[in-house]
Each structure stands twice: as C-alpha cells, then as structure tokens.
Please model this.
Amino acid sequence: MLGRWIRFFIAIAFGAAAGVGYGWLLAPSPPAENRPSALRIDYQSDVVLMIAEAYAADQNLAAAIARLAFLKQTQPVEVIQQAVNFGERYGYSDADLQKMRALLTAVETLTPLVGTSVP
Amino acid sequence: MKERRGSLYLLTGLVLGLAIGLAYSLLIQPVQYTDLSPALLSTADKDQYRALIAVAYLANRDLVRARARLALLKDDDPYNALAAQAQRWLAEGKPVEEARALGLLAADLAQAQATLLAPTVATPPAFTQPPAVTAVPSPSPATTFSAEETPSLPSATLASPQPTPTRQTPFLLRKRESVCDPALGKGLILVYVWDAQGNELPGVEIVVNWEDGENRFFTGLKPELGLGYADFAMQEGINYSLRIASGGEPVFNLIAPTCTAANGETFLGVWILEFLQK
Model:
C-alpha cells in the first residue's frame, strides 16, 4: 500500500515537472504580455532619443510626454535621466545628448516638486 | 482487475501533477521577460514603436538611422508595415502628424530602394511632362507590389532625394479628366502631385469629402505607381470633393463616371487629377 502511494506521488511529480517545463520553456507567455517597460536599457534609451528628436523639431511638450507614456514607467523624468546617463556612458553624440537633456529640462519644469515643504 | 486500478491511479497522479505544474508555470509564476528587444513587443506596441521611429525621422531626416531602428522590429516588409500603418492610423483617428510621418518614411524607404535598384541612372533626364497616365499599371487599391517588381519608377523621381512638400505653397489643379479605361481601375480617383521642379511629391496629405463623411490619405504609399501618386475608391452615385490638405484649389463634383465596355457591360470609370505646386 505504501509503495502505491509513493508511486502516486512520483507520478504527480513527473506531471508537475512536465507542466512546469511546458509553461516555462515551450509555451511561455505570449508577446501580448511583453511590455515596453521590459525593453533592454539601450532600446529604452533609443526610444527616449526618438522622442527627444521629435521634441527638438516640434517643441510639442504635450506630445513628448504622451509618447513617453509608451514606456509605461511611472516617472518620465527618471526614464529620461536614465537614458541620458546611458547615452553619456556609451558615447551618444553630443547632438543627441543635447536633445535628450533639452527634453529632460522641459519635462522637469512640469514635474511637481515632491517632498519640499510648503510654508 | 488489480493491474488496471494500478495504472489508473498512476495516470490520475500524472494528470494531477500536470495540472499543478501548468497552473504554477502559466498563472502563479509565469515567465517574466526582461531585457526585451523591440521585435518581441506586442503588435500594438510595435505600432507605437514604428510611429516613434517615423516622427523621429520626420524631425531628423536620417534615413540610415530610421532604417536601423526599423530593423529592430524585424518586420517581413518594413515598407508595407509603414504604409499600412499610415492608413490605419488615419482611419483610427490617431495624430495626423504621425500618420504623415509614417507615410513619408514609407515613401522615402521605397525611393531609396528604387535608387539602389537603378544604380546606372547617373543623370536623370530633366522633367518635362508627368508620366503618361496610360502607362500606369492597373491601380487597384487592393493590389500590392514590391519595389523589386516595379523598377519602372519615373526616372525624374530619382533626381531628388527626399523631396519635401512645402506646406505654405499651394497646389494648382492642372488636369481634371474622367477616363473610361478598366486598365486604370474602376471607380477610383487617381491623384498625382508634383512640385514646381517636376519632382513627384510623396507624403502630401489629401482630403476627400462627401455629404456625410471625410477621408484623408497620402501620396507615396504606392511608390510602384509613382511617389506622387495616391488613389481613392469612390462609391457609385456619391458626390465627392477633393483638396490638398496644405492648400490649393478644391475640386468639386467628382462622381464616379458610368462607362460602357465594348461587350456592353457597364463599369465605373476613374477621375484623374493632377496637381502642381506653384
């Protein structure tokens, strides 16, 4: 009787292993689940650069902020700052960095100051 | 009988384990992707990414950079993806500027491709006349060609890398003609737009109005028919007016002409409208 239970649990373990293997390796979550926020940092930085390039041309801050929402990050300023840091570290051209910094400055002016005491 | 019962409980255990494993791996702890490439985004997010590439291109006109970015999406046919999205963007009421950027990038990609395919054209002939309408392949809206299939782009277009319509300069209607030729299509408005130098202009926004509707489209989305070409499918009996969005004289009373073929059958003819930038 005990051997029967052992075999039963071994069967469960085999089934569970097969199920996990299928779910993690063969049929992982579909692309619809993939979010732009999970893009690699260099791709995210390029997205910010694209938005900065458009902003440099049209000076449309509302459109730029709406486009930054594509990355689905809570703080646009952080996303741009992260992209600027990445660009500085990995040798973006001065012209590109200038556009990104201009966008950063423009977005920062709209961001409410958090944590500052109000008299 | 005892042996069958033994097999059944093992099978039950296996199925139970499988269910537990699937629930865990798909629902409780699904695979979380990090460090994605743009090619792995959902279709909707890829569309957004493509639109960003296009608006950046509109700003910097760097085709090499735009092409490198498009390559990240791994579209089978980047040109068709852009052209289709431009039309879809308009239909869905997305920003017109983004739709225009998508259309312009599609047109410039096609033009660059055409230039690569015709490397022997060193000095294109000066523009004298627009391409004869009768030489245009059947312009059915549903027909799609690849640039490779249609190397016969008018050579005048190769002379001007990335022509840009000047928004402030109006367009003059220089030809308006109804034609009964099934080879040109049925029930279409065929629009051709040139700049003052005779270069075909892609990315020109055209507005069509009728009694209870409006549609917008762009030249250059069917580069195999000409970079300054665009068409619109009319409904029988509807009275349309058409204008270039950036300015110029509107064209009124465009009703699909009823034509009779040699065998007695009737079909809808086409309107040909040619605009020249002043």
